[in-house]
């Protein structure tokens, strides 16, 4: 998967996920996915692709915290 390739390339600390704007950036209508879709659908795909729990935690928790941290 793309996410696994990025993590393997050492770029896991740069990945941010969005669950509510799919398609909008390309001019398509929003899919209105529920927020839990990331946890119930996407995370299982990541772990099935071989991402470690640490890598998933980095993407879901540490990266957004780093982005939003006041500097």
Provide the residue-averaged pLDDT. Answer: 86
Gap between N and C termini: 33 Å
Principal-axis shape: globular
Order of helices and strands: HHH
Our count of helices gives 3
- By oligomeric state, this entry counts as single chain
- Rounded to the nearest angstrom, the radius of gyration is 13 Å
Helix content: 40-55%
| Unreliable sequence segments | none
Strand percentage: under 5%
Structural class: mainly alpha
Report the strand count: 0
Largest sheet: none
Structural commentary:
- With 71 residues, the protein is mainly alpha-helical.
- It is built from three helices and no strands.
- It has helices spanning 2-8, 37-48, 53-68.
- The longest helix is centred in the C-terminal third of the chain and has 16 residues, at 53-68.
- The mean pLDDT is 86.
Features:
71 residues, mainly alpha, 3 helices, 0% strand
Produce the secondary structure layout.
Layout: H1 2-8, H2 37-48, H3 53-68
Kindly summarize this structure in a few lines.
By secondary structure, the chain is mostly helical. Helix content is 49%, strand content 0%.
């Amino acid at each position: 998967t793309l996410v696994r390739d990025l993590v393997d390339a050492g770029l896991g600390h740069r990945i941010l996920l969005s669950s509510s704007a799919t398609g909008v950036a390309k001019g398509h209508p929003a899919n209105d996915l529920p927020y839990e879709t990331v946890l119930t659908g996407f995370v299982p795909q990541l772990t099935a692709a071989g991402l470690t729990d640490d890598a998933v935690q980095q993407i879901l928790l540490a990266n957004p915290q780093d982005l939003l941290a006041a500097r």
